[in-house]
Amino acid sequence: MPVREGTYGLLAEFDTPTELVVAAKKAYADGWRRLDCYTPYPVEEAAEAINFHRNKVPLLTLIGGLMGLAAMFLLETWVSTLAYPLNIGGRPTYSWPAFIVPAYEWTILFAGLSAAFGMLALNGLPELYHPLFNAPNFRDGATTDKFFLCLEALDPKFELAETKKYLQALKPASVVEVEY
Amino acid sequence: MATTELKKHEEGHTETHMAGIDPVTGEYRVIAEGQTFKSVTEEISGVVLNPHTPMGWFAIFGIGGAVATFLLVAVTWLFLKGTGIWGITQPVAWGFAIINFVWWIGIGHAGTLISAILLLFKQSWRNSINRFAEAMTIFAVVCAGMFPLIHVGRPWVAFWMLPYPNTMNLWPQFRSPLLWDVFAVSTYATISVVFWYIGMVPDFGTMRDRAKSKVAQYLYGLVSLGWRGSVRHWMRYETASLLLAGLATPLVLSVHTVISFDFAVAVLPGWHTTIFPPYFVAGAIYSGFAMVLTLAIPLRKAYHLENLVTDRHIDNMGKVMLATGFIVAYGYGMEVFMAWYSASHWEAFMMWNRMFGPMGWSYWVLVACNLVIPLTTLWSRKLRTNPAYMFFISIVVNIGMWFERFVIVVTSLYRDFLPSSWGTYRATKWDYMTYVGTLGLFTALFLLFVRFLPMIPMSEIRMMLPGAKIKPSAVKAGD
């Protein structure tokens, strides 16, 4: 990402989740697309308000789980039949029922790691610096008890003075400009 | 345990005034009245961010650390001399190490049950206790995992159990339950740590923003991964948490099932039985909930968290123990029944010997601690909501469940088919030191957790507060 300068966006602070959802709904209906909400706990209604419904975490988890299953089952089969065949009580070398247990464990292992790290990757985390942390009321607000709506400068509708007025009409507790 | 149930006669209940339906959320209230986003955040993060460490913390940490040195000494001597310093011999080749392994890992299972299965069942009362229950899981798995490793005789080559290409051209034997254990326990440890850490990331964001010292801001900032609470992030996070819970649920059931296979796949009377997997899993949850109570009751008192971990939580855990206790009782009953019904001479003798043989006392300790004391008294709501009594019960069940594993391992092994090979088992001081040492290690690790990490998930508690309710009428009007 190239180093950016200037305004990242305008950040409106709300005291309750209901006010945030109402404001986010209106902003989305008015054609804003580069916008995001920040909340101290998951607010599903706010995600719906900005039209964020689906995510790819389940797909990644499925792919990861299938890879784990295939990897372990094939490894067991190859080891037991070709690489190191052992006679264990006269059982066949390809004794697949016994192979289920480790394959099952690895399905869960790979699926779980894919869910966790896939979620972080899709979220673009870790990202230790973010312009929003420059806003004076963001830190300790967004992670404690305040609800934020951010209209980003990258949106074609963004016009500093106009947008500020627009946000103030939504009756937030405050509107601040966020710099990069 | 439905959160919507109504209990009229509890209205006058004193102390935390936990009874009743919250008028705003319309749900059964589990958190004390009058809490706000700010108050819960301050209460929970304050425990960690407070620069003053209570003397009691140092005292208990000191004791835990001192006891943990027993482990260090015992393991060092073990590495020098070999497993001969333990009481294990023929025919009892599995002694304390395997008993402690199964006991510790069983304790860990309640943490996963609380964090995963109760999440899937939408039991929101779990939110107050899931974080430290998960921490308990991880520290219990640390203690558990050590025992098979030091039991292998040459622990420095324990990695030979893993399938990897090597110059000896050796590969592991995938048809053995002992190898299944390697995969089950390592997966369990990994997924538990990941689930625990991912659950803490948003709370680390809160800690980063509330910390006053630069060092704390820097360290919490690093582990928070830059969490900023975007709703897009939250939605993916919620999906991932739910998926991890959905994966951890079959995992926890499979782990103790695989551990029970270590016994059940053998042909030994007392081990060779199909009831072991469900009976082991139920026993694990039984002892795990007991351990959660052992930890939660002193913790909420020491840190004044009675508003967040209420009597209702203790009551609910008592109910889970009652239910799993009866499954365990069914397991014991079935073992006795099958000893007779199988018409197998060896099975019948094993059961008679287990009850009335030279080590019969251990069977009756188990019956008293796991069945008689808890299952007759946990019916009473009055006793279930009495923290002192529940603490006592939790200790009793922990002891009883340790003896269950002692009975399974030792009394099955010491008198098997051939009287000429009968023997006995006597644990040595090194066995005791290793076991007591893991208790110290567990205590020390848990106290570090309480001091440096948020022990109650703040973001999940916030979701349960009346202030988190979106007013549908206002949102409609905004359209």
Structure characterization notes:
The complex is a heterodimer of chains A (180) and B (479). Chain A has five helices and four strands; from the N terminus they run βαβαααβαβ. With 180 residues, chain A is of the alpha+beta class. Chain A has two domains: 7-55 and 131-179, no CATH class; 57-122, no CATH class. A four-stranded antiparallel sheet of chain A has the order 2-3-1-4, with helices on one face. In chain A, helix 3 packs antiparallel against helix 4 (96-122). The radius of gyration of chain A is 25 Å and the shape is elongated. Chain B has helices at residues 37-49, 55-81, 96-120, 130-151, 177-210, 214-223, 231-264, 276-302, 311-341, 345-356, 360-377, 381-384, 387-413, 429-452, 458-464, 472-477. In chain B, helix 3 packs antiparallel against helix 4, helix 3 packs across helix 8 (276-302) and helix 4 runs antiparallel to helix 14. By secondary structure, chain B is mainly alpha-helical. Chain B has a single domain, classed as Formate dehydrogenase/DMSO reductase fold, CATH 1.20.1630. Chain B contains 16 helices and no strands. Chains A and B meet through helix 1, strand 2, helix 2, helix 3 and helix 4 of A and helix 1, helix 5, helix 7, helix 15 and helix 16 of B.
Task: Annotate the secondary structure layout.
The complex is a heterodimer of chains A (180) and B (479).
Chain A: E1 7-14, H1 17-29, E2 35-38, H2 44-49, H3 57-83, H4 96-122, E3 147-152, H5 160-168, E4 174-179
Antiparallel strand pairs in A: 1-3, 1-4, 2-3
Chain B: H1 37-49, H2 55-81, H3 96-120, H4 130-151, H5 177-210, H6 214-223, H7 231-264, H8 276-302, H9 311-341, H10 345-356, H11 360-377, H12 381-384, H13 387-413, H14 429-452, H15 458-464, H16 472-477
Helix pairs in contact in B: 2-14, 3-4, 3-7, 3-8, 3-13, 4-5, 4-14, 5-6, 5-7, 7-8, 8-9, 8-13, 9-10, 9-11, 10-11, 11-13
